[in-house]
Structure formats: C-alpha cells, structure tokens
Amino acid sequence: MPMTTRKPTTMTTTPRASQHFASLTFSGDVMLKRLPSNVSMLLQRTTKQGLSLDPAIANTVATAMKEWALEHGATHYCHWFQPLTGQTAEKHDAFLSPLNEGGAIEKFSGSALIQGEPDASSFPHGGIRDTYEARGYTAWDPTSPAFILKSGDVATLCIPTVFVSWTGEALDTKTPLLRSISAVNTQAMRILKLFGTDNGVQHVSATLGCEQEYFLIDSDLVAERDDLTICGRTVMGSPPPKGQQLEDHYFGSIPQRVLAYMADSEDQLFALGVPVKTRHNEVAPRQYELAPTFELANVACDHQMLTMHVLRSVAQSHGFTAILHEKPFARVNGSGKHNNWSISTDTGINLLDPRDDAHTNLEFATFLTAVIRAVDSHALLLRASIASAHNDHRLGANEAPPAIMSIYLGDMLTGLIDTLESGKSGKTPKSAEMDLGATTLPNIPKHSSDRNRTSPFAFTGNKFEFRAVGSSANCAWPATVLNTIIAESFDWVATEIAKAAGKGPTAAKFETAVRSVLRDVVKKHRRVCFDGDGYGEAWHKEAAKRGLPNLRSTVEALPSLDSKETKALFAKYEVLNARELHARYEVQLEQYTKLVVIEAKTMLSMGRTQVLPAAIRAQSELADAVGGTIAAGVDCADSMVALKALVGEVTLLRKALAELETTIKGVSGSALASAQSVRATVVPAMERVRSSCDFIETQIPADLWPMPTYVDMLLMRS
Ligand code: ADP
Ligand code: MG
Questions:
Q1: 410 C-beta closer than 6 A to ligand 1
Q2: CB distance 366 to ligand 1 below 6 Å
Q3: What is the distance between the alpha carbons of residues 603 and 609, in angstroms, rounded to a whole number?
Q4: CA-to-CA separations, 223 to 136, 228, 533, 610, in angstroms, rounded
Q5: Tens digits of per-residue pLDDT, 526-539?
C-alpha cells in the first residue's frame, strides 16, 4: 500500500558533456550510433536493469567495438580486470591475425569479447589454485563501458571483465561486488514491495562517488628517496617547522603547475567517461583532492581505478609523482578516499533521501534504521573492509576517523530516531534561511544538519559517506562489504515487518507493524550513532562503555573475515563462498606482511647505506674539530658534549638497525602468525630506527644529509 509519495531525484550516470574531447568509452551516443537499435536496447537492459545478457548479440557488439577502437588508433584489445593484488591487470592481444593465404586481417569476435583466459596461478589466489592449476577466465562485464586507454601513441581497447578460476570461484574484486549489488537489489525490492512503492521500479542499485586525496611531489626529489620510490611513503624524515598548523593550504589557491596537471588529468578522465567534478587543495601542504559525480557502484569502482591510474601517469609528464599512499609523511595529514554511498532505483529515486517529510516518511525511516542496524551488527566486518598496512598509519591518528565504526546522523535524523524510539510524533525541521547580517548579502539556505568530518560513516543529507577508506584502496571491496551487510539488514527488516504486519494488513496495521520493528531496531542499535568528536580520547572511552569494538590494526581487524558469522553472511547472500572468502583473508594477511617487510628492508638499506655513513661523516668532522681545537689549547667542552651525543645516537641507530634485521628474519609461520609477528616486532623496530634517523637528521650538517627532506619535498617549491 502506498504510504509515501516520491519524486525522482536526478542521478548522473553519464559524464559531463565536454566539447573538446572525443569520447574514449563505448557507451552513450557512441554505442547508440554504432549498434543496431535492438542490440543496444538489449545491452542497456543488462546495464540498467541488471538482466542477464543475451550472448547472441556479442558478435555484433564486438565488431562495432573493434571498428570504433581501430578508428581511435587502437591496435590491441585487452580484458581489464582487478585481481586480488588491489591493482588492475591487463593482457593485450593484437586485433591483427595472420591469414593462411598470406596477409592479415583485423579480427575481434564475440567470444573474444565475452571470455579470455589468463593464467590464474600467477595472481594472488589465497589457496584457491595450486601453481600447477593454472586455468582462469576473464568474462565481460557489460554493465561497465569498454574504453580506450592511450599511453603515448599506443592505444588499447580495454574491456572490463571479472576474473574467476577454472572452478568458477572469484579471484577478483569485481565478481563479489556485482553479486553484492544483486543482493542489495533483491532485498531493497522486498522493502519497496511491502510499502507498495515498487511500481515501475525494476531494479535498485548501490550508487557510489569516491573522493580521492593525493599528494604531488616533484619527481626529481622522489627519485632521490628509495622509500618514496619503492614504498610510496617516507619511512624517515623529521617534521617540517611549518606543516598544516596555519591551515593555509586547505582550499588555498591552486598553484599554476598543479592546476595544469589537474586540468590535464581531468581531460583524460572525461574522455574515459569518468565524471570528474571537484578539485581543491587539501589540508596538508602539497595535498590535493579530486571528486567525481557519483555513478552506479560497479561503474564507479572501475572509474575509481582508472582515476588512480590517470592521476599517476599524467603526473609524470608534469614532473610530479602522484603519491596515493595513505600516509606518505609522518606528522602531516594522510590521505583518504571518502566513499559516498547510497541506494537508488532505476527510476532515479534515491532511497536515502529523507526530503522534507523525514518524520512521516516511514519508508525512508526503514531504510535508514536498516543501515544503522547493519553498521552496528557488522562493525567488525566493516572495519576489516578498510584494513591495510597503509591505512593503519591513518585510522585513529587524530586526523582520520578512528577505527571505531560509528555513524554520524546529525540533528534532523537524530530527532527522527528519537521519535521512532519514543513512539511520539515528531516534526521534520524545515530547511531554514540564514541572515548573514550585511544588507548587501543574500540570505542563504541552511541545511537541516551540520557536518562531521571525524565520523567514519557520516550521513551527509541524502547519502552516507564512508570516510575511513584508504586513499590507495580498491573501493570495490569496502563497497562489497557495505552492500552485503546492508542486504542482510534489509532482508531482516523486511522479514520482521512482514511478520508483524501479517497477510493483507490495513494501512493502520501496517504502519503499527513498521513502527514497532523500527523502534526495536533503534533501541538495540543506536549505540553505534555518535555525533561528537570522533578524534577525541573521550570517544574512545565512551565507545568502550557502549561495547563498540576498536580494532586498531589490520592484524586485529582481518580475522573477522574468517569468522563463522562472516562466512554464513557471505554464503547466504551468495557474494562469496567459504573458500572464496578464506582466500581473501589469506591474501590480505600476506599482503600486509609483504608490504611491511618491504618497507622494513627499504628502511634497513637506507639506514645502513645512507644515514649511518652521513652520521659517521658528521661525527668525523666534529671529532676533527674537537681534536684540532684541543690541540690549539682552546676549551671545547660544548663540542665534546655534542660529539658524545652524536656518537651515542649512532650507536643507538646501529643497534636499532640490527634489531630490525633480526625481526625481519623472524617473520615466519602461517599467514596470520607472520602478520602478527610483523605487527608485534617489525613495526616497533621500525619506529626505533625512525626515531634515531629523525634525530640525526636534525643534528648533522644539512649538506651531509643524503636525501631530500620534508622541507624540500613539501615546502620549497610551488
Ligand atoms: P558533499 O558536499 O556533501 O560532500 P557532494 O554533492 O559534493 O556533497 O558529494 C560528494 C560526493 O558524493 C560526490 O562524489 C558526489 O557525486 C557523491 N554523491 C552525491 N550524491 C550521492 C548519492 N546519492 N550516492 C552516492 N554518491 C553521491
Ligand atoms: Mg576531503
């Protein structure tokens, strides 16, 4: 029975029109122009409504794609996929095939479009494949547009695909993402049906818009630092006297060189179909941000991977290195990737938009409370979805949301859940106007709620912003987890409402049933809602009192991927079977260990071959000076103190380096045991080395310091 009236809100799924760029994506007008209308209609049914693809159209699509790609100078095509490395992968095949009778012909068949066969054993598989079991398949994802990637003069047609093993098990991030989107669709449709608002709606999908933060550092300086070059972050470096304390960089005017880089990146991204929209300076010196208009989650995730690729590759031609690491510079803000997430119908209705009637819009309240329930019930899993060695430096470091999963609702929605809990009626505050005091200034509208940048999961008007995702992460995994826990919660809520309402309820009985279910959910789960300062110590205490988990490191967070509950959850919604899930758990543990060990080895080598020799040179200069001064019969007690201090620090550094080497050698055992040993021994040993190196940096002559400093990299050039 219809209880609410809804007006569609616009959702952009196509990039901003741009006059001067030839589109390099096979979608929209390009597709319509090149495909017979019945074929493009069938293809659109798949992309828009999630219906399965008719394989009979593959040959026609392949031929049209090939002709279009050849016109753009493409010589090769590739299946473009996202293995568990967290990166993208591609294997190129030439269109040109030799003919028996001599000569060659440009070929691209429907079967080559639909399926490819890369070696599955050379990618991380977490035990799903043995090395001798090599077969793996890529399969076309028609819901994400193919595109032409240009690198210099070379153009390649890229076809987004999933990547599965010979057994059909997922070896990538896209397969479970697509499955999780289906799960959201199924369960959200049940809620719409209950409310009688499913008319004309064929499909509900998750929408995603990912803001990307990054640093731009001059490439010549990066080349002089092994740590930045190899690990993407500095493992040593004393803090600059001026960091972000003056708050003068955030939204500051964008330097000309940086702007030229941004414009160039945006041009390329537009052409690739990525709807980039916003650019600005971020909080830290040399930190910037780019945000696109949101899209359907699957396409948004692919576009996010392309965004990272373009940001990195365009930087090179501008003399920059784009650093996407979560924490490239200690004591300077790190980078995140805010995943703005919502759910929308194919008719363009954002189901998390409360509009003006939030307090009477029970359907919105149902979706909202289901989200609250999901985040509270599955906090451990949500925490695990953003865990990485890189993100460990950021979460909870008084600049990024803490590792405690909580939800910011703002005043209006807090008022709404208050009324749901108390059963009293409430009123939605109307959007007010602000009088700015000066007669020449217009009154401006005031939002019904403030913002909170310290919350890991914040409601921002008509969507949630999952702020704890790391800047270098592949968004597909956090989005998959979010979709799956939401599907579970929608399922639970729909079932409870149906049970409470009974068959064919009157409108009044249905409303009573909904209110009673929502009241129980709010009572049980509102402990996860917190609007205060998430960075403060007080919240850590309060969260502990509320029983909310606070898993500070990846090693503590990942085991929830292997729990009985998580296995049951992913199996029930057919997102990942137990083997597929376990594989991800293993791969992520291994990745954690490998990343930290690579950093530790880099640090060991820089410490031994750069910092120690520099310190010893300084020591010898100082010793010469002390010797000469004493020989000249002049008192130099001060210099002797300084010399002793330096010698003492050199001794400490040598010892710390030896310890670090021992801890690296000590990493062994199962994936979990290795990761635990890295966390317990290698990470603290690295901290000791760093503290010695950073001290030495401040004590020795600048011309002896063997690498660019934080000041050189962050402050010296514009
Ligand atoms: P805000 O100022 O609240 O951050 P913006 O509208 O600038 O809002 O949005 C920030 C990001 O959120 C953008 O990438 C935007 O496209 C995305 N976004 C907006 N609405 C939605 C939605 N319904 N679903 C997913 N992402 C959204
Ligand atoms: Mg930001």
A1: no
A2: no
A3: 10
A4: 37, 8, 39, 15
A5: 999 999 888 888 99
As residues whose CB is below 5 A from the ion ligand 2, the structure lists 289
Q: What pLDDT is attached to residue 534?
A: 86
Query: What burial class does residue 707 get, using C-beta atoms within 10 Å of its C-beta: 0-12 exposed, 13-18 middle, 19+ buried?
Result: buried
For the whole model, what pTM was predicted?
A: 0.93
Q: Which residue has tokens 């010898």?
A: 620
Whole-angstrom distance, CA of residue 304 vs CA of residue 698: 40
Q: How far are the Cα atoms of 160, 174, 266, 371 from residue 26, in angstroms, in the given order? A: 11, 19, 19, 35
Element (H, E) at 455: none
Give 152-187 as a DSSP string: TTEEEEEEEEEEEETTS-B-BSHHHHHHHHHHHHHH
Q: CB neighbours (10 Å) of residue 567?
A: 18
Q: How confident is the model at residue 124 (pLDDT cuts 50, 70, 90)?
A: confident
- Give yes or no for residue 88 CB within 6 A of ligand 1: no
Ligand with smallest separation from the Cα of 339 = 1
Whole-number Cα distances in Å, 507 to 9, 46, 196, 511, 688: 26, 36, 11, 6, 67
Q: Tell whether ligand 1 has an atom less than 6 A from the beta carbon of residue 292.
A: yes
Question: Average of pLDDT values for 588-594?
Answer: 97
The rounded Å distance from CA 465 to ligand 1 centre is: 8
pLDDT digits (tens, 9 = 90+) for 337-371: 999 999 999 999 999 998 766 566 899 999 999 99
Q: How far apart are CA 543 and CA 540, in angstroms?
A: 5
User: Is the predicted pLDDT of residue 659 greater than 90, yes or no?
Assistant: yes
> In this structure, what is the dihedral angle of CA atoms 386, 387, 390, 396, given to the nearest 10 degrees?
80
